[in-house]
Prior knowledge:
This protein has helices spanning about 40-50, 75-85, 130-145, 175-180, 220-230, 290-295, 330-345, 365-375, 385-390, and strands spanning about 5, 20, 60-65, 65-75, 90, 100-105, 110-115, 120-125, 150-155, 155-160, 165-170, 185-190, 190-195, 200, 205-210, 235, 245-250, 270-275, 285, 300, 315, 345-350. By secondary structure, the protein is α/β, with parallel strands linked by helices. The protein folds into three domains: about 5-150, Phosphoenolpyruvate Carboxykinase, domain 1 (3-Layer(aba) Sandwich), CATH 3.40.449; about 150-205 and about 260-390, Phosphoenolpyruvate Carboxykinase, domain 3, CATH 3.90.228.20; about 210-250, no CATH class. Strands 2-7-8-6-4-3-5 form a seven-stranded mixed beta sheet, with helices on both faces. A hairpin with a 2-residue loop joins strand 10 (about 155-160) and strand 11 (about 165-170). The chain is globular.
Amino acid sequence: MPNITIQTVPTGRSPDKKVFFGNKTRYLDLTRPKYNRIGRELDFWEFYEDITDQVFQHYLVFYTAGRCFSVQTNDDRHAQFIRNMFDVIEDSVEDYADWKIIHNTLLDVEPTIYIHLDNKMMLISGTTFLGEIKKGVFGILGFELPEENKLPMHCAAFTYLNTTNLMFGLSGTGKTTLSSDPAYKLISDDEVYWHDNGIDMIETGCYAKSEGLSPETHKTIFDAVELAKSNDTLVVENPEAANARLSYPITCVENAYHKPGEFDHPDNIFFLTMDAKGIFPPVSKISGETVRKFFETGYTSQMPGTEAGSNEIKPLFSPCYGSPFMPRQVKEYSDLLMKKIETHGCNVYLINTGMDADGKRYPLEFTRNCVKDAISEKKEDKSEEILKKLLTLL
């Protein structure tokens, strides 16, 4: 299939249009109603009738995190995106799927994302934004994996100097750019999960921002995009938008692991904070309850275009560095994280990818060096100082 360029409406996700159904909604965190709303059973099935009232051209099946997903879509462009992001199995049968996703871009409706937790079905319509299916899968795993003592994480993962490293952060704060450093070997640029034997990738593709992309500053991503283009697997999304993105299979990334597999427990964990106020230093080692506090609050700055209607940089708190995809109580995720950190002796660092005290953004190369320095040598523990600064923001 040839390379694809798509202009979507809207140009970002619509997490506030997501509604859950079924008896299992009793496990949702209803203190975050923007992302966790419960709908009427009748509404789900009426919408199901509307969304399935056609023949779907594409039926895709893939496995991830021990589950089989099927995706039905009418849209060639979204089918290509799914093939980029997941290891799709050809000639599969629907009966194998644990979860069914039905995606229809032809209905004349507002963005609608319905998730039935009992019947394991997701319905998506009224939006052509590519990330809805990808993040829909992650949100499903965000609900189910904690029941198995597995922690879903909105983070990048990579190996470097015989260490395994995690990098948490919201979309646009630098996960893909920093984790794609040519010196690293990439595991995933956005989503992984942590189980009893180590970590594993959820996706087998990348979804990188294209703004400022150059061979000098983003060599790994730039080379991967060029290879994807030559392989006719590149998907370009909203090229003129503030949050324009590129999708390509991870096999296009030379310095990456190309197949899912179990990796070691992380040695180092990085929390990325795109701090627009210039409060935090470029790198600080944190520990104890400071780690829990940062994870539970997820302070950063939201980047333009990440969600529909978002057109400016503004301070944002997103629990677990991915609140829209973590529908359970926040403490369930933080308890899992703290237990795993304690069990495996992980170092945790706060990295400010935003502004310094003078309002100037830290240069990319400087931040890259901060991360490498943290991996290769111990940093001063500033957990008490950082916690005090964090509390002033709450």
